[in-house]
Amino acid sequence: MARAKKLKGDGSYREIGADKDGKPVYEVTISTGWNPLKRRYEKRTRRAHGTMAEVVRVRDELKAEVGAGIVRDADKETFHDFATEWLKLREADGSLSKSTISINRRCLGVLFEYMGTWRLKDVKAANVDSVYGCIREDRGYSGSTMKQIHITLNLMMKKAVEYGYVASNPIELVQKPKPGKSERRSLDPQQAARLSAGLREEWAGVLGRFETALSSGEMAGRRRVPDMRALSCVVAVRLIAATGMRRGEACGLSWGCVELGEGREALRVVSSLTPDGELTEPKTNAGIRPVAIDGATADMLREWREMQRAALASLGIIQGTATPVCSCSTGAHLSPRELDRWWGAFRKSVGLDGWVLHELRHTQATLLLAEGVDVKTVAARLGHSSPSVTLNMYAHAMPEVDRNAAQAMGDILAGCRDGKGVLKIA
After folding, report:
1. DSSP character for 60?
2. pTM > 0.70
């Protein structure tokens, strides 16, 4: 086989044979540069027949295609292949969180089932609308989940446009799914009391078993302390109910952010643990906040700190300021997914089957506002960026305030008040 020869200006060529008329056949090659999606340098080749003038013409044709962003074999590229390479590129970027990559992966996994074998050029707005309808019908996904799928698909197709695989992004013509308005349920005072009693009962039962195992020396030499996870789950649920913390915030809390001095009992929320085990900072400055805790919660934390210290010592771990308050059986952070699984079993025992942990956060806001606590204080405890956010979400929890306002206005109109809030005495 002949060696490749350079062409003046750019590219190379080599003779690879002759056609049926005896004319020489050349393979013309130009470099298309680095492909970040495939992570390799690529080239483009095409055959030329006859003369060197034809070789130069073919070379110039290839250069024009590359300059215009026309991708070789774009017609053959499948949705699955491009999406897989796109996801690898996002993972290698390093600037995206693990949770974002995890969401992208789950969304693409769903889309692969419906359009994985499609050629990329066949992804059209009408086809995607049909796929969205099938996903909703087959899986019953909420508007929020469909929105995540849409965002992932849109990002991927934007990159396909940038790399020249398609001329335009058809997803821009598809209406973005809207998250449905979810009902914000909250426990009533009786349910909240039942939850608290159930947590105390669970705490006492597991703690008794835990203390017996520690005192008998059963834990010595082991790599895990199974009941440490169960007790941590009780603590986490108590914290969420008592402070309105998010699930990830409770799982991400460390002892260095807990103050248990008499009269100063409080927590400081500075981080959150994602379902993928990544510690992240709150999205807003308001999310970094101190939260006062009640005496019963503080007593539970004091008792748990001592029990956990002994359990960790049996594993050869020294409890410190960075030690998670809620730990798994090995002493590492309790995963939000582990907490969800525990809650799923426990909630049935207290008559709360079907309730999710985040509704305990709603309970904090609803019950405090109903008790007349001012909105600014409630917003600060929840880590909302503004009291207006709290008002928009929980105004329904303030019927007594509304009734008082109505009565005050009625008194003014009736001449019973002087307009400054002072009742007139006849």
Report:
1. H
2. no
